Amino acid sequence: MSGDTELHSTFHGIGVSAGTAVGPLVVVTPPPKPPADEPATTDADAAAATVHGVLEDVAKGLEERAAVANDHARPILEAGVMMARDPGLAAGIDTQLQAGKGPATAVTDAVEEICAMFTALGGYMAERVTDLRDVRDRAVARLLGQPEPGVPSLSVPSILAAHDLAPAETATLTTETCLGIITEAGGPTSHTAILASQLGIPAVVQAAGILKVPFGTTVAIDGGVGEITVNPTDQEVALLEERKRRRAAALAGGTGNGATKDGYPVALLANIGTAADAHKAAAQAVEGVGLFRTEFLFLDRDTMPTLEEQTATYTEVFTAFGDRRIVVRTLDAGADKPLKFADLGPEENPALGRRGIRLGMIRTDVLDTQLEALAAAYRATRADVRVMAPMIATQAEAMWFADRVRGLGLPKVGIMIEVPAAAIRSKGILYHVDFASLGTNDLSQYTMAADRMQGELAPLLDPWEPALLDVVALACEGGQLMGKPIGVCGEAGGDPALALVLAGLGVSSLSMAPGKVPAVRTALGLHTLTQCQQMAAAARAGTNATDAKTAVLAMADPVLRDLV
Ligand code: PEP
Ligand code: MG
After folding, report:
1. Last residue of a domain, which of 230, 250, 270?
2. Which has the least CB within 10 A, 125, 170, 268, 378?
3. Predicted local distance difference test score (pLDDT) of residue 71
4. How many domains does the chain have?
5. Distance 289 CA to ligand 2 centre (A)
6. What is the DSSP string of 260-281?
């Protein structure tokens, strides 16, 4: 950062979702704490009336947001409304007030008592604790005259700044009111980054100091290069507009299938997470879906969705794509994508624990229900459905999964290569399945031993890292030996310059947030396969990620610079 945050200044972070925007900054407020020296309550009845009024205001606020929320966010908000109006909560608070506690302390202590009770009851009740604490934070903030914590309801189109955003919080945002996202934490493969590009909202992560910029200040964001300008000058806004225009011109290059300049096909596919994503993506020029992250459908569900509900959702998604391919990933629960109904309890190292297929092999009830629903949706639509498993590490896992999928009559089965063991031994693993898809987000975290959730490790997780490219190359060699296709569905596939390297390494499809497809299509069309292979060799010869990228940009058509 340079200069005074009140005046003109520039921040740099990591651009994770391309696009530009200018607008007022809205900061996501952290939860308040009741002051340690809060004055005691002397008139319990008057204090109770105030607190009950505040709880009703909290309920109404949540109700208003639920009315306009999407399917992900609505149930979370409605649960909060019920909690805020719960007579048991009001009675608990009254007891604390009668004991002389100040209103904010009374709310906090009453909520903690109920939380302890809910936790002891376990199951569904224990899961209500998060909702209840959210209501507490909102009520305490109001009692202290502070703004409610969390993502505020954005009445004016704004740029949102936060330390970090939970997936469920990001899911409440819409492109109409959220012009951009800036976080202090998070990395390029964090789920904030993935959901932002899924929604087509420009985003920058790792923007240290952004929370010091006052609420309402005008900021300009460039989610491609990762630059944020506070109080931009007219000239800077004009430059941003110029970049936007040049980018639009470079992207005006058609809607056809992905291919290099000399016609080597590289299918351009969409990453989706919900039925709404599917409808949006299906309306765009994509050749199908390369990754349907099914766990995104159920992030905030307490109980397993039924066979019927899942069948209906998958049928809707398959129908949306007609005869275009749809690669569905079975639930990748655990670690960064916890699902309440498929939780095996706390672990020391969740990313190295029972996640993905490991969890599916324990909770066969969850996996089989999903596979049966996918098979039913396939029978109903006869779509080009390809089902793959997350986090495969061994041949035995691949074989186990392939048997189950084929046993249900599903036509094609594949696996994700996101564990280095699977990349190194891809030939043996591919023997059992029809295709593989490289999950470069996890492959990067496991190759570099760097937690993708830990933003300060982001430099190690740069997908240009030559070690990652070497591991990708190994996986592709196995694919070529077996004559089976390997695609990429991690965030690396949506970087137009890196896409050239991946094509040069031999991948036959790239799957990404649909908004990224036009830039990748243009980049491929500007270069021959031989050029892509030369760029791949140059990138692998680099000593680090920056070297690798610089070498590729120096070899590429100059128009590529407007695309990244
Ligand atoms: C990946 O790991 O690259 C991937 C595509 O899966 P996710 O990001 O959902 O873990
Ligand atoms: Mg993954």
Report:
1. 250
2. 125
3. 66
4. 3
5. 16
6. -TT--B-EEEEEE-SHHHHHHH
Sequence-separated contacts (24+) of 419-422 with Cβ below 8 Å:
419/391, 419/392, 419/393, 419/443, 419/446, 420/446, 420/447, 420/471, 421/393, 421/394, 422/392, 422/393, 422/394, 422/475
- Residue 527 appears among annotated catalytic residues: no
The confidence score (pLDDT) of residue 224 equals 84
Residue 120: inside a domain: yes
User: How many H-runs (helices) and E-runs (strands) does the chain carry?
Assistant: 23, 16
Give me the percent of the chain exceeding a pLDDT of 90.
Answer: 68
Ligand 1 mean position to 439 CA, how many Å? Answer: 5
Are 152 and 29 in contact by the 8 Å Cβ rule? The answer is yes
The pLDDT value recorded for residue 422 is 98
Tell me how crowded residue 482 is: count the other CB atoms within 10 A of its CB: 17
- CA separation for the pair 118, 124 (Å, rounded): 9
Among 115, 178, 476, 489, the active-site one is 489
Query: Would the CB of 188 count as within 6 Å of ligand 1?
Result: no
For residue 59 the two structure tokens come to: 């309920």
DSSP secondary-structure letter at 6?
T
CA-based radius of gyration for the chain:
25
Does the residue 273 lie in any domain?
yes
Structural domain of 233: 9-27+150-250
Task: Please give the Cα distance from 82 to 476 (Å, whole number).
Answer: 52
Q: State what percent of residues in the chain have pLDDT above 70.
A: 96
pLDDT in tens, 67-107: 877 665 677 778 889 889 999 999 999 999 999 999 999 99
Has 532 been annotated as catalytic?
A: no
Please report where in the chains the tokens 């202590």 appear, as a residue: 109
Question: How many A from CA of 199 to the centre of ligand 2?
Answer: 19
Q: What is the dihedral of CA 150, 301, 62, 130, to 10 degrees?
A: -50
- Are 87 and 190 in a shared domain? no
Domain assignment present for residue 408? The answer is yes
